[in-house]
Amino acid sequence: MYNGLKERNGIRIMKLIYGGNGTGKTKRILEMSRDTKTPIMCESEQRRLRLLEKAKGYGIDIPNPVVFSNALKGSKVLVDDPYRLLAAAFDVTLEGITVNVEPDDVEKL
Description:
This protein is of the alpha/beta class. It has one domain (7-108). It is built from three helices and seven strands; from the N terminus they run βββαβαββαβ. It has helices at residues 25-36, 45-58, 82-90; strands at 7-8, 11-12, 16-18, 40-42, 66-67, 78-79, 106-108. The strands form three sheets. A three-stranded parallel β-sheet has the order 5-4-6. A two-stranded antiparallel sheet has the order 1-2. Helix 2 links the parallel strand 4 and strand 5 (66-67). The two termini are 15 Å apart.
């Protein structure tokens, strides 16, 4: 069970979950969404429906995911697959992505 995000020097620290296809990344963020009651932000309605389908299949009750264009400014959200979200949001092909995260805040699956 996920017990919430940590803070360092008053700044909330993001948890980075990584791994290859089929390693459980989406299941893990579904669990985080359930445990923190935080919706997952995704890039499309199709992905939103897929997340709900996966959650149901795992027996995980989550808040309704939000599509990027529907997300409210200032809201607390989780992101499943930031590569796809950013590519869709900006209509670009991403060549790379970086994340500032401490090693203790990284979870490999």
